[in-house]
Amino acid sequence: MQENGKKEFVLRVRLAFEPDRLNPMLSALTQATQIERKIFLPLADYNPNTLILEPILMTESPKITQIVEGPYAGGAEYDLNILPGATWDDGTSITGFDYAFTMKAALNPFISNVAWQSHMDHIVDIVVDSTDSLHIKVITDTEYILSESVIITNPIYPAHIYDPDQMLAPYSFSDIKQLASVNHQDVNQRLKDFADQFNSDEYSRTIVQGAGPYEFVEWIPNQQIILQRKDNWWGNRNIDKHPLMESKPTKIIYYFIPDAQTAITALKDGRIDVVAELSPEQYIDLESYNVKARSLTLRTAPLLQYYFIAYNNDHAILNDKRVRKAISHLMDIQTLADKLFFGLATPTHGPIIPELPAYDTSLASIAFDPETSNLLLAEAGWTDSNGNGILDKNLNGTFTELSLTIMTSRSRLSQDVAILLKEQAQQVGIFLEIMPLDLRNLVQTARRGEYDMACLASVQEVGPYDPYNTWHSDNASTNGNNWCKFRNPEADKIIEKIGHTLDEGRRNELYKKLQRIIFEDQPALFLVSPKFCMATNKHLIFNPTAMRPGYFENTFSAN
């Protein structure tokens, strides 16, 4: 195809799951984040090649001044300057007011995903310079390991597009922080009205606008999303500033192909160009295929991700640590790594990736030990009183069988993990029913806590890891991201210390203490940290990265 006398470069990417929405503040799926990164830009982000935090919509890294006196002593002032000449699609300049709007919107307690809020408690005010709208001061009241990242890596929204009625404009960041915590009816109603609009499908599937190099063109449900490179984009003169500024493909089409074999066939036939999220078995098979075909490029890379089986610690059966431990002892994790992952994964024991210095090497994956499982279950009072092969007990006055449901995605690998556990559980008198769900329903159901067990994956970002969002009891609510509903006062204290320990060595020791507590409580069965596996058309030139999803398609070129 020709376009303006030049050959159009259309990149066709397979996604295993359809995004839940395209709104960075609200979306929950990594597939959504992958697309959003091409549309929205933050003030800064980690470079996928160097893993160093670098400016994008800023002129330079923030100037940070420690506050030594006054009400915010112990905190810091971050001095930010937005890049002159950066504009929204309608030519409107990107200013500090867009940044302030974004942070105020994230603080709204009525938006449908409060994940951003949990990292913003230490931010007390955001002030846009009255004489220079490109100049911003962000004030914190305490030291926090993610301060710089939280302040500058969130995607920025155009205020005039996402708040056309200026519902948040009359309030400063500090106003909303104070008013959202008290019962102020008029203001709360205004915040609710904004959230109703912002949470709507219209602002996630129709109105999708950011400062990035690509514009949202079309979303055909259950089929594809199309992005088009912007003509005369303001950032074209800054493409060397950061890889997220690059836009080598003219158009990117994301095809939703849940079935991996269908995607692989399309790749072999030349109907799509990029297939990631390959299972280890599929990757090994493609290596064999490519020996003769020589039509593909195959890559693996370390990934900041781990697989685990979440236990709902609020469940009447699973709130007993002995039952959770008994189930965990039924998974042969090394066999899992060798047979289901073909050696392309590392066994793990907790929420820290094995490649990181904070990983506690004194611990090992929980041992495969059915005999210990039997002892723990007997100690917890489970017996087979009626001889039907399923353990039972009188639980809170009710005859209860040790029967649980384990949710999986529809991927073969996810279901195979569940099958492996189900077979072993049956041997000791535990009945597991496997319930495959599409990923969106799986995530939503797990977040609400309406499950027994769930096969899940956790993806960590580059930079310091704050476990507060996923392991502190504050976030064990319906909208929080502590999906295991893990509550441990000692763990809470350590997590709070981690957030304020800037020294990496001391912080790593705290991470290790937390891993030991989690290992002892077994709020989840931690499995493996996999390698990222992908295959592409051999004519594509790209570099894999440890940052999710393992590649940045806007940087792909073709030879």
Q: Tell me the helix content.
A: 25-40%
CATH class of the largest domain: Alpha Beta
End-to-end C-alpha gap: 16 Å
Give the second-level CATH assignment, the architecture of the largest domain: Roll
- Globally, the shape reads globular
Whole-number mean pLDDT: 94
Estimated share of beta-strand residues:
15-25%
Structural class: alpha+beta
Low-confidence stretches: 1-5
- Can you summarize the main beta sheet? 8 strands, mixed
> Roughly how many Å is the radius of gyration?
25 Å
Number of domains: 2
Q: Using the coordinates shown, work out and report the CATH topology of the largest domain.
A: Dipeptide-binding Protein, domain 3
Q: Could you tell me the number of beta strands?
A: 25
Please tally the helical runs, counting DSSP H or I stretches of 4 or more residues. Answer: 17
Quaternary assembly = single chain
- The CATH H-level homologous superfamily of the largest domain: Dipeptide-binding Protein, Domain 3
